[in-house]
């Protein structure tokens, strides 16, 4: 009865609304100026990925004649039209906010200028820099019958140049902007604080040096966004690693899906590029500023402007771990919860480091989805293997846009003596688990770490996640079975504590929702709080609608995409959806069920999306420790009270900021204060 198109929101439009909330952080006057600039850059980078994957996929559907409609009733062509309208407004706002922020930065003696506006000394420095550093790297490419149009890399910055020579017909050339050089260049100038110019502006200023004997009629910076989704041959892939490497090479040549150009009064180069790339006006985005404004992320690191950034947050170490000499002793005594980034990720790193050198540790087994470029965890695993431990690592080489990094680390692990599994054909391994097997006296003891986020010590500073250490025997047994399932031919066992996708997780979620429905029908208080990144799975949404219609109160904290519509009469009138967008990226997946007074809380690696529940290896695990359960419940309640960085979704899919009544609650600030208290009130 709830399966009607008017009860669902389109995935792509919902994502664009999320990116709009990210962009709005750039327009928050209470936020430090360089932090506002960062959010402009983040929104731009997000949009690039959206075109590379989501828009590219829709275009492929149109070209293939696939008439499939989404739950909201839109086919691919209709979605592309709606996306185009929304993105053009978003791009307009991006450049408007960028202009405002760059203007405000001048009040703090930070200038991003064009070459012509520099002082004489500045222009002289730029000219010397051009000839000494930039000119040797430039390669102008003629485009004519003898010189075909070059293959341009995805998102590379280029200059299209229109040339004339006497009465000869116009000529065109492409001038790639060297990616090996910084995009934003500081110009020494004692008269101002900090002066910057863009690399492409320097090249444009001196472009005539590259085309001697020709007159330059027009120069337009442009960039092509290509389809970057990897196509793995699931039927014939005997070697998954080889298939991924093959697809990575193909990614560079993917079909063009977007053309970005700096706006020009002349149309020749615009028409020329559209024709070359076989695109139409809908694929063209003309902008009134620099191409790819994600480059301004580099300005965030300016020295000497700390007042224009947030005060640094120092991740805390809970008081029970500060002086612990042996992590295994602490974990054996009781379960430990860490709340990142408010609490440090270092205990997770130290968990592996200690295991690497502990003579009692026999084996380490771990999943890796995304790791940092200089991963402490990977180095510790390699050290463990070199020390004679049995180390088995499941590295997911299809983690989107981290494929090359993961392949690099996987090979280094193999060289160190680790046994490496490069993921599973047909299923991405997204669950986060580390299992350490230790010989203690006359028995084997298992220690397990599980989390909602990746084993990445860099993103752990900016992503909000939870992780749990436990020595629970049943969890340890499940962990062993989990790795046996991944590494061998073992069928999924009868789990004691864990729930694992793709077999069982969707059913468990629906079972838990059904239990709340039963309590509500008995006159008890049915209540669900679910926090995650995205809610898209149709089966789960229909089950939530059923629960709402039968009196279950449902609070959803969904950072990004949400296809569910709240507040629909007789459908979702008991459902509220909010999104928190702040300094940190909300990333944890937390599920709370009132359970008739015997409250249950679960943590998970999975969002409620079909891909997570049906196409990935994911984990859901219960919180059994009453103290930790109360702590997580308190964290959820703080998030539900947020009236500073929270948005509420309306039934039409639009969002409004939560009205600031009473005491101001910024949940991220509050959670950091609580982490400080748990650390004994002092920074570590």
TrEMBL record:
Occurrences of domain Polyphosphate kinase middle (ranges): 123-298
UniProt catalytic activity: [phosphate](n) + ATP = [phosphate](n+1) + ADP
Matches recorded under InterPro entries: PP_kinase, PP_kinase_C_1, PP_kinase_middle, PP_kinase_middle_dom_sf, PPK_C_dom2, PPK_N_dom, PPK_N_dom_sf
Broadest EC class assigned to this enzyme: transferase
Residue span(s) of domain Polyphosphate kinase C-terminal: 327-491, 498-663
Pfam families from the UniProt entry: PP_kinase, PP_kinase_C, PP_kinase_C_1, PP_kinase_N
Catalytic residues (positions): 430
EC number(s) reported in the record: 2.7.4.1
Cofactor(s) listed: Mg(2+)
Coiled coil: none
Keywords noted in UniProt: ATP-binding, Kinase, Magnesium, Metal-binding, Nucleotide-binding, Phosphoprotein, Transferase
Residues involved in Mg(2+) binding: 370, 400
Keyword check for Kinase: yes
Cited function: Catalyzes the reversible transfer of the terminal phosphate of ATP to form a long-chain polyphosphate (polyP).
Family classification: Belongs to the polyphosphate kinase 1 (PPK1) family.
Descriptive protein name: Polyphosphate kinase
Species: Pelosinus baikalensis
